[in-house]
Write a structure and sequence with these properties.
single chain; Rossmann fold
Amino acid sequence: MKLTFFKIETPIVFNEQYINVLEIQNQNLFADCVLHLRQLNNDVENLQPIQYSEANDGVLHNEDFILINDIFSLDYEKSFSSKLLKLLTEKMNNQQSGLMMQDSFNNVKKIFEEQIVDLGGNIEYNTLVSLGDIIKLLNPKCNYLDFSSYFNTCLNFLDTLELLSIKKLLIFVDLKNYLTEKQLVEFYKQSKHLDINVLLLESKKSKLIEYEYKNCIDEDLYEYVEK
């Protein structure tokens, strides 16, 4: 899997052994890359394409990645909840627990219908209620945020993506400003364990740590690799 940014010659090659870090010490280029990704994430049209080998057309699109400037500001509740609802419905369909839930709801429905008869008149209501509709009433949600710890929230976010089988490229901006070296290594290990592709986009030079493969660009735009 390869990702090639505009204005950067060396492609980012993803490997199951490493976590990729794109370290851009030239602040103008770093700002351009972040802005470009933010615009792409918001479906701004007529942008210079970012080459991405995993996409059908070879170009990175909004649906291919999640850009994370601040994980506490991410709002995936709606999309996560819809995927969780689908997962739970598929899991419970034709299982004893699902049948029991449907039977219990039928008893509720029977009581409701008895009350309608007592009221008289023509009252319409939804007679076709699926197991998915019943589960939706319970309003299940994935809560990955842990406001006491940025590190725990990052790990919870990975677990949520794995639970819901969401396979997207995660691009973190300046994650090293928030996590210690030990936390980064644990985060890398969990990403590898769950087979989730992660790219760190960093604006400052830092030492190479375990699991990292770094594409570096210095202030003079010289490109080199550290691994």
